[in-house]
Amino acid sequence: MGIGESGKSTIFKQFKIVQSNGGFNEEEKKAFISVVHYQCTSQIRTLIENAEKLGEEMGEKGKKAVAMMNDLYPSDQVVVNKELADLIEVIWNDEGIRKTYEARGKKFLLNDCADYFFNNIQRFAENNYIPNEADILRARTRSVGIESAQFRFQNMRIRVIDVGGQRSERRKWISCFDDVTAIIFVVSLSCYDLVLREDENKNAMEETIQLFEEITKHRDLQKPNIILFLNKTDLFDTKCVESSIKVCKHFSDYDGDDEPVATKEFIKDRFLEIGEQIGKKVVTHFTCALNTDNVQNVAKNIRKYLLGNNLEEVGL
Ligand SMILES: Nc1nc2c(ncn2[C@@H]2O[C@H](COP(=O)(O)OP(=O)(O)OP(=O)(O)O)[C@@H](O)[C@H]2O)c(=O)[nH]1
Ligand SMILES: [Mg+2]
């Protein structure tokens, strides 16, 4: 569980990869081609739109590329061919677009991995392109509904349920509450200075904390263990130095240095306090969902933790 874009589905994908004999087969990989292509086109359009809104002037080459893209490729175009890739590359290299990119998060929302898609666009446009694991982990689709899969970690089978985190999705969660052994609550550490996609008046960390409180106190969820993933450590470690966590009203009393280790511990303690208030033990892990080794280690720990609770077969 967790708010939209905290990284739930990315972790779900990683579980599929790191399980015993895991990974994506050829057909499953191909299914991500359109998602990868859509990331490229939708995110460049977001940048163009916001460059206009912010009054960032584009160069002549960039403007020409935008005009050609709009003429030749409708916004619902899903296939990125060589010509479209070249146009997107020119636009991405435009100075006005780069300035707009630097304003992401502060003035508008852009997908976390947008730069990855622009920087690799020529590879995505190749005729025989098959997404690799790095592409798949970054290819975002907003989860709608509930996805469930059974993963095997050595001798232990774990059923994992992935839910959508945006507000409209959360009312579906109740149907998964029966028989869960543990809840993985995913927090995007780097969202402390962002607003919600579905409500631009709401700080995303504030929403996360409120949601965590609701979940820990929910009367139907008194039994399950709570495993907290403090995710997006890679983005957080860079961001917390540039933009103090104090900008988030829940962390305004932080009086330490703006550096990654102390700030992460401070945020972790905030979540642990919420668990303690209702006498619930919360197990925490710092994660970078894009890092397979990191998730593999965390998965090993979870397996041990669940085995420690004498559970041979569990449903998460
Ligand atoms: N840099 C970075 N990006 C991440 C990390 N975890 C997830 N992402 C990216 O963040 C975006 C959103 O991740 P998702 O896994 O789709 O988020 P979600 O929680 O499933 O979102 P909903 O389905 O809307 O609830 C994707 O582009 C991911 O690749 C991380 O640890 N670091
Ligand atoms: Mg999802």
TrEMBL record:
GO terms assigned for molecular function: G protein-coupled receptor binding; G-protein beta/gamma-subunit complex binding; GTP binding; GTPase activity; metal ion binding
Binding-site residues, GTP: 5-10, 162-166, 231-234, 289
Keyword Metal-binding set for record: yes
Residues involved in Mg(2+) binding: S9, S143
GO terms for biological process, alphabetical: adenylate cyclase-modulating G protein-coupled receptor signaling pathway
Cellular compartments per GO CC: cytoplasm; heterotrimeric G-protein complex
A Pfam short name: G-alpha
Keyword Metal-binding attached: yes
Keyword line: GTP-binding, Magnesium, Metal-binding, Nucleotide-binding, Transducer
Stated name of the protein: Uncharacterized protein
Lineage of origin: Eukaryota, Amoebozoa, Tubulinea, Elardia, Arcellinida
